[in-house]
Design brief:
Layout (H helix, E strand, L loop, with lengths): L9 E2 L6 H6 L4 H12 L1 E10 L2 E10 L7 E5 L7 H11 L4 E5 L15 E2 L3 H11 L4 H16 L10 E6 L2 H11 L4 E7 L22 E7 H6 L3 H12 L3 E6 L16 H18 L2
Parallel strand pairs: 4-5, 4-7, 7-8, 8-9, 9-10
Antiparallel strand pairs: 1-6, 2-3, 3-5
């Protein structure tokens, strides 16, 4: 989940260099190749028109001629910042057109926090409360449609391929909503330590699964699972009932936020394992 009490204290943005991010988890023999691949990625700040305004975002795609499948990336609760730019660049180097968005554009342009952010500090938590309030289900659905339309309008996007969507923390449920808002385009959904995927509310993301046509990868944090041990089984049952292919896995020893560099609980081996699972999903599902 993404409640304040599950976050592990201090979070900072390490502003990882492109080369350092490319080397992460790569054997020494292949490190130079990985770095060169990311150097061949085009990065561009963009503004995406939505029914409620313009969302500051960043677009990545491989350099050169060609078309590639598109991916929408929803960041965690601290929004669009350098670490998610690095993720977007790394994914584009694998052969994808990637849009990383600022979910809070209605209230503030990115970055929404400067420097370190401490979830143990009430004053820090208070800064994001009004931003979270802008992410109502109707707003998210409108934004999802606009973001996917923007990706489809790019000349680098392969319109014959399905679109992927991935989310971190609060981005997990937003990814589920995206798959339901644009079911004819979304072919793969990945949630990393996503919160509130199965709740008792009428707006619970799991209720949207039958409306989607995607394959799912749901990777659950160990401490999230300990707090709500029945959620993984409920999600598995929901996917089975809807007939949607899905993998729901608890990452033992990896706590909430383990995939995001700069988190106090960042776990590089587990993050690299999750990254490999993500790439395998997209290779299968996006065509």
């Amino acid at each position: 989940m993404c409640d304040d009490d599950i976050h592990q204290g201090l979070v900072h943005d390490p502003s990882v260099s492109r080369r350092a991010f490319g080397l992460m988890g790569v054997a020494a023999a292949g490190a130079a190749t990985a770095a060169r691949a990311q150097d061949k990625v085009v990065e561009k700040d963009v503004s995406v028109k939505t029914p409620d305004g313009e969302a500051d975002s960043v677009l990545f795609h491989p350099a050169g001629q060609g078309t590639w499948p598109a991916v929408l990336l929803w960041p965690d609760i601290l929004g669009l910042r350098q670490v998610f730019r690095d993720m977007g660049r790394r994914l584009a180097a694998e052969g994808y057109v990637v849009l990383v968005v600022n979910p809070f554009y209605r209230a503030k342009k990115a970055p929404i926090v400067d420097g370190a952010f401490n979830f143990a500090n009430p004053e820090d938590r208070a800064k994001i409360a009004p931003l979270r309030a802008t992410l109502t289900p109707p707003n998210v659905d409108k934004d999802a449609v606009a973001y996917v339309a923007f990706l489809d309008a790019q000349p680098q996007t392969n319109k014959k391929a399905k679109v992927g969507v991935q989310g971190y923390c609060m981005g997990g449920p937003l990814s589920f909503r995206t798959a339901a808002a644009v079911p004819n385009r979304i072919g793969a959904v990945a949630s990393f330590h996503g919160g509130g995927l199965h709740t008792a509310e009428a707006t619970s993301p799991h209720l949207l699964i039958p409306k989607t046509n995607a394959e799912y990868l749901v990777l659950v944090a160990d401490n999230d699972d300990k707090k709500e041990p029945d959620v993984k089984d409920k999600l598995k049952a929901a996917f089975a009932e809807a007939g949607r292919p899905a993998k729901v896995e608890v990452y033992a020893g990896a706590d909430h936020g383990w995939t995001v560099k700069g988190s106090q609980v960042y776990n590089e081996p587990a993050a690299e394992k999750a990254w490999a699972e993500l790439l395998a999903l997209y290779k299968r599902a996006l065509g």
